[in-house]
Amino acid sequence: MSPAIESEEHKALRSAVAALGKRYGRDYITRTVAEGRHPTELWAEAGKLGYLGVNLPEAHGGGGGGITELAIVLEELGAAGCPLLMLVVSPAICGTVIARFGTEEQKRTWLPGLADGTRTMAFGITEPDAGSNSHRITTTARRDGADWLLTGRKVFISGVDIADAVLIVGRTEDARTGRLKPCLFIVPPDAEGFQRRPIDMELTAAEKQFELVLDDVRLPADALVGDEDAGLLQLFAGLNPERIMTAAFAIGMGRHALGRAVEYARERTVWKTPIGAHQAIAHPLAQAHIDLELARLMTQKAAHLYDAGDDMGAGEAANMAKYAAAEACVKAVDQAVHTLGGNGLTREFGLASLITAARVARIAPVSREMILNYVSHQSLGLPKSY
Question: Which of 27, 115, 152, 249: CA 20 to 30 A from 348?
Fold first, then answer.
């Protein structure tokens, strides 16, 4: 079936997840943030219902679907006002990488827990000096007998405080060429030499951000995920789902903001007419809806290509989807807040906090400028500037 036309199963999944999201909603997330805790109840229920591991193999407790299904789950929770950011990290990035490249032992150890939500895994790639350039990662792993020693720093790592392990991107030296190549390691957060420090964010979210310092963290040989020589292939197997899921996250948030604005514009009456009857209010909301729908189409295409095993095609589409969804989300949130006027900045309506949250999709996991770089030289064949 074309990814543009959803199957009955996908429609049923959407409505089931939407019903779960409706039971929790924006107020639930706002409350958990105010209490300084994680949305554990929603996470546990979503896990029990099979939504968290819908993309993971059935043989290891998952739903046997793909990123297509997991993106639906995140989008619908977001549209209900209660997105789970760790869905992007734990099952989408870490679960995918382990399912595709992990040893049988790693799959048995991690996938059932990631699928039912009883275990979570964080993902550590970003570094203070490397930014979006994954080729400049300085976290290095060197052999010490049968063990590995991991040293380096990571920043903006989500959910380390609740993670059972962190999947860390390091680099090892190629014995033949002496060049460094990326490798992935499963690191327990209580390992000696592993330190975490919370980053004080203006962003109000249940999931906290951390800086990590790894000082000669000793890891057994089986902490390495997959083949030491697979390098970038394994890394991008996790990064394409991350972009697709970020797009779903943004579309869900945009839909939530737009829904609140439309509701308000139908009811708020000035000069005997609902404000939604005025084109200056109605048309920008209609445009926001169109942009979100277009972004969703590209997200569905990217997920479809990824699930079909087309990593190259998925790379281009995932970048485009992330770009389009982030832009659509920022515009939808901005227009929603503007539609409500002063009410758009009150805690009661809960839209003002989305102004900051919407920008996250423009910045992470890769900036819109780096996506434009990718499209200009990969898709259009223009020369590189860097």
Answer: 249
In the 8-state DSSP scheme, what is residue 221? G
Q: With DSSP H G I counted as helix, E B as strand and the rest as coil, what are the percentages for the chain, rounded to 5? A: 55, 15, 30
121 in Cβ contact with 163 (< 8 Å): yes
The angle formed by the CA atoms of residues 131, 114 and 97, to the nearest 5 degrees, is 50
State the Cα–Cα distance between residues 262 and 265, nearest whole angstrom: 5
Angle between helices 40-48 and 8-34 (to 10 degrees): 160
Predicted structure pTM score? 0.96
Question: What are 79's two structure tokens?
Answer: 């549209």
CA distance 198 to 200: 6
DSSP-derived letter for residue 90 is I
Contact between residue 274 and residue 352 where contact means Cβ atoms under 8 Å apart: no
> Is the Cβ–Cβ distance between 166 and 172 less than 8 Å?
no
* 4-20 tens-digit pLDDT: 789 999 999 999 999 99
